[in-house]
UniProtKB/TrEMBL annotation:
Keyword Oxidoreductase assigned: yes
One protein family per Pfam: Acyl-CoA_dh_N
Coiled coil: none
CDD domains in alphabetical order: ACAD (cd00567)
Family per similarity comment: Belongs to the acyl-CoA dehydrogenase family.
Transmembrane segments: none
Keyword Cell membrane: no
InterPro entries noted in UniProt: Acyl-CoA_Oxase/DH_mid-dom, Acyl-CoA_Oxase/DH_mid-dom_sf, AcylCo_DH-like_C, AcylCo_DH/oxidase_C, AcylCoA_DH/ox_N, AcylCoA_DH/ox_N_sf, AcylCoA_DH/oxidase_NM_dom_sf
Residues in Acyl-CoA dehydrogenase/oxidase N-terminal domain copies: 11-98
This protein's name: Alkylation response protein AidB-like acyl-CoA dehydrogenase
Obligatory cofactor(s): FAD
Length: 385
């Protein structure tokens, strides 16, 4: 019996899911190679471009599909079932475009030009904030990347780490310290002389995201490249960050499917039937299902509320953060249970479980971190008491 996903609510979402599942199936066949080599999946990016995936969150008036947050989460979860690295990487692009669609943080002319480039040429974007000495920007560290005014614009110098998608980007956003104003500015930078990539990304998980270091050496950007100052940043509740938990639950879903299929078909000669009939295996399958249903229900309910209640988006931030914490920790538990079901064979590189086991570890280090989520929840509870 084919699994019915009750989170797919209508024909539009079913068509979106069908399109993404076709991509995911192709990407799954390449995932092990990219993981082993630590190579960037240019072939997958080309496939996403051809399928129109890169323009999913672009406003309709600029030629995009303008999908909702819920639909974006649905697409990202499905894509990650094929290849988590590709899903996480492209999630920053479609998530940020969705974010800017609502906050209008860019000058409208520049945003329109970029969006039309996404539609026509498959342009992509990411925001590079992390640095070796400051760590995650969510911790509040001031960037060591600096900017100085020059004739007609600015010169930017610094190093950005965890720069996901960097091998494929012709433009990106960087945060830089403006000493004269004691302010952090966000600048739109095009790849040019003075911009280089140092291939530092060599990790145990999410090895194909291309999250290398980007170096900027007196890179010139025109005056209108200053998108905004950090103090002027608008908030939409950061619903777009749900692309992160969607990715890790997609990986967990793939692990669950693999383990269930394995349990139904593996028949050691010491047993009269498949291992799925053993009570302790059945228990592990039940644990996976319980955790997956719980985490997905929270994720999709938050996305749906974000879409339906614009006036509540800021207030919804604790739930949005909680959805990420629950999803990433649940993904760890589900993949662990899947490996217990499959047994020692799960450690083999010939099976995808060991890759999924490594990939889901990365979720703990994507924002927001677990301690920040708990602090946010506690703060709200104390204010409400």
């Amino acid at each position: 019996m084919k699994n019915i996903d009750y989170f797919v609510r209508n024909e539009k979402e079913a068509a979106l899911v069908a399109m993404v599942e076709r991509l995911a199936e192709v990407f799954a066949g390449r995932a092990a190679k990219h993981d082993l080599e630590g190579s960037f999946p240019f072939d997958n990016i080309a496939g996403l471009k051809e399928a129109g995936y890169l323009k999913l969150t672009v406003p309709k008036k600029y030629g995009g599909d303008e999908i909702s947050l819920y639909e974006m989460v649905l697409a990202q979860e499905r894509l990650a079932r094929g290849d988590g690295s590709t899903a996480l990487a492209v999630g920053w692009h479609i998530g940020l475009v969705h974010h800017y669609r609502y906050t209008r943080d860019w000058p409208e002319e520049l945003f329109e030009r970029f969006c039309r480039d996404v539609v026509a040429e498959g342009a992509m974007i990411n925001h590079f904030s992390s640095e070796p000495k400051t760590g995650s920007p969510t911790r509040g560290g001031r960037p060591e990347t600096v900017v100085e005014e020059t004739e007609g614009g600015w010169l930017i110098t610094g190093r950005k780490s965890f720069s996901t998608l960097s091998p494929a980007l012709d433009q990106f956003i960087v945060s830089a310290y403006m000493a004269d104003e004691d302010e952090v500015g966000l600048f739109f930078v095009r790849k040019q002389d003075g911009v280089s990539i140092e291939e530092t990304w060599n990790t145990i998980g999410m090895r194909a995201t291309g999250s290398h270091d980007v170096l900027l050496d007196h890179v010139f950007v025109p005056s209108d490249a200053l998108l905004r100052k950090k103090s002027e940043t608008k908030s939409d509740g950061d619903g777009w960050l749900l692309h992160i938990p969607a990715c890790y639950l997609g990986i967990a879903y793939a692990a669950r499917d693999f383990a269930v299929n394995y349990a139904q078909n593996y028949r050691p000669n010491s047993l009269p039937g498949p291992i799925a009939e053993l009570p302790h295996i059945e228990s592990q399958i039940g644990i996976m299902e319980e955790k997956l249903i719980t985490a997905r229900t929270l994720l999709y309910s938050v996305a749906d509320r974000w879409d339906k209640h614009p006036d509540q988006r800021i207030a919804l931030q604790p739930e949005r953060a909680l959805a990420k914490k629950v999803a990433t920790n649940t993904a760890l538990e589900i993949v662990d249970a899947a490996m217990r079901i499959v047994g020692g064979a799960s450690l083999s590189r010939s099976l995808p479980l060991e890759r999924w086991y490594r990939d889901v570890r990365a979720g703990l280090h994507n924002p927001p971190m677990d301690d920040s989520v708990l602090k946010l929840l506690a703060k709200r509870a104390l204010l409400e008491s």
